[in-house]
Amino acid sequence: DTGVSQDPRHKITKRGQNVTFRCDPISEHNRLYWYRQTLGQGPEFLTYFQNEAQLEKSRLLSDRFSAERPKGSFSTLEIQRTEQGDSAMYLCASSFLTQEETQYFGPGTRLLVL
Amino acid sequence: LAKTTQPISMDSYEGQEVNITCSHNNIATNDYITWYQQFPSQGPRFIIQGYKTKVTNEVASLFIPADRKSSTLSLPRVSLSDTAVYYCLVGEDTGRRALTFGSGTRLQVQP
Predict the structure, then answer these.
(1) For residues B86-94, average pLDDT
(2) What is the rounded average pLDDT for all residues in chain A?
(3) What is the pLDDT of residue B86?
(4) Nearest CA in chain A to B89
């Protein structure tokens, strides 16, 4: 296993379109996290899963944001009706259940909304 | 959640030792101190974690004084490839299992 992977690496879309990002975590990891990072800032937590259960989603930025992890393996993050303010790097991370402070991050998906 | 304060930026030259200090005055008894490194256009990477005294691994050393109100990440003999943003994190976002990142310290290593 080579680590956390994310697809696509870059996405350019027009305002109002829907976008979906995929994350494949390290296979042994139970926990999967989504973060957003804007220029010059550290990553900002959005949501996390333990296996297939989404245990925290109150930090999702609006109801346009949703995430799934249907089989407890890969996860998707969808943004509906994108806005220019959604332009950012979207990062996925995974960890073992008992090692939440040691998270392994993917390379991120950079979104640009025109 | 303990708030952390670290310098916005630092400059160094190749071969020098770099020490980045992080203040966390209200650290809780159960909190660990964790440092992450982030290169441009990449996700953060775990570097080192400690609770007290000194921790050393193949990448860095972490010095934590007895009162644990600060910590120092030490990078020995930096190279150009150590140019990155370094984040100090303390504890976790209790109940949310999330890492809380500040703005980090931008380290620029010159030749």
Answers:
(1) 78
(2) 92
(3) 97
(4) A101
